[in-house]
Specification:
With about 300 residues, the protein is an alpha/beta fold. It has a single domain, classed as Phosphatidylinositol (PI) phosphodiesterase (TIM Barrel, Alpha-Beta Barrel). Helix content is about 30%, strand content about 15%. The chain is built from 11 helices and 11 strands. Strands 1, 2, 3, 4 and 11 form a 5-stranded mixed β-sheet that branches. Strands 5-6-7-10 form a 4-stranded parallel β-sheet, covered by helices on one side. Strand 8 and strand 9 form a beta hairpin. The chain is globular, with a radius of gyration of 19 Å. The chain binds SN-glycerol-3-phosphate (G3P) and calcium ion. The site of calcium ion has 3 residues, from strand 2.
Length: about 300
């Protein structure tokens, strides 16, 4: 039995997206059954203010929008969610992520694009699914919503953070002890949410791979957040061909100021250069560095690693 320094939370990144199309209800149900602690929701808005569980601001890569509404393409070549009402988006067929120009699947060994069709999911629908599964299985799995591009939504005329917080409030997730982490890349958005909701709503500051992080920034983040969600590239600098690896001190620095560390994203089919297996990667982050959580497309494999 593996005994890591701390048992990390398993956060199902877009669901069990290694096996079923990202953010489909099927992917969320599978991840729940595989043992995830939290299920992730990326959230964007439709024109009529519906909260959609989708990663991109546009529909191009995961749906047949280009065939169904060719006249709705913007000058930049994208079909934006916010240019469609929910009723229109519900008529689209969703599937595995592709390059919309070439039609090639991003992850060719995942669920075949041709094998099934899926529909868009709203935040309300996903919460109902999770609560239903929590009831039927007795496992209390949490939600991990991300507010996508809040400034962009504001410029389009929609206050996405307020819509999300209101919805979470209606579902009772702002109450103390709720199983939730709220995540966003935008610090100003998170600071405003902390002011409005107080410390009962756990907040994660996402950090992209290009972010310059030092102790001063981490102390600032600790004033309004409970943890960071860094790209794994901010921690694993290099995996050398001789099997050695070079890591930063971000995990220990963040934990020293009281921040949890939930790096993203652990994928069997998208490993860092020279890394030979997902287990090797998990060994560094979980056994050696002691992270507090991991975002993964492969909940089953992380569960198995922790239990081995
Ligand atoms: O939210 C954690 C991770 O998902 C951030 O990156 O682009 O996959 O949403 P992204
Ligand atoms: Ca995300």
């Amino acid at each position: 039995m593996n005994t890591p320094a701390r048992i990390p939370l398993i956060i199902a990144h877009r669901g069990a997206s290694g096996y079923l199309p990202e953010h489909s209800l099927a992917a969320k149900a599978l991840a729940h059954g595989m043992g995830a602690d939290y299920l992730e929701q990326d959230i964007v808005a439709s024109r009529d203010g519906a909260l959609l569980i989708l990663h991109d601001l546009w529909l191009d890569d995961v749906s047949d929008v280009a065939e169904r509404f060719p006249q709705r393409m913007r000058d930049d070549g994208h079909f934006y969610c916010i240019d469609f009402d929910l009723a229109e988006i519900r008529t689209l067929r969703f599937g595995e992520r592709i390059n919309p120009v070439t039609g090639v699947e991003k992850y060719p060994n995942r669920f075949p694009r041709s094998a099934g069709t899926f529909g868009v999911v709203t935040l309300d629908e996903e919460i109902r699914l999770i609560r239903g599964l929590n009831s039927s299985t007795g496992r209390q799995v949490g939600i991990y919503p991300e507010i996508k591009s809040p400034e962009w939504h504001t410029k389009q005329g929609l206050d996405l953070p307020s819509l999300v917080i209101d919805a979470l409030d209606q579902h009772g997730y702002l109450e103390e002890g709720s199983r939730i982490f709220l995540q966003c890349f935008d610090a100003d958005t998170l600071k405003k949410i902390r002011q409005r909701s107080g410390p009962d709503l756990p907040i994660i500051q996402l950090l992209s791979s290009g972010t310059s992080v030092d102790e001063s920034l981490l102390r600032e983040i600790s004033d309004y957040a409970d943890g960071i969600g860094p790209s794994i590239k901010l921690i694993l600098r290099a995996f050398n061909t001789d099997g050695h690896h070079d890591v930063s001190d971000l995990v220990s620095m963040a934990q020293a100021v009281g921040l949890q560390v939930h790096p993203y994203t652990f994928r069997l089919d998208d490993l860092p250069q020279n890394c030979d297996s997902l287990d090797s990667l998990l060994q560094i982050f979980i056994d050696q560095l002691g992270v507090d959580g991991v975002f993964t497309d492969f909940t089953d494999l992380v569960t198995k690693f922790i239990r081995h």
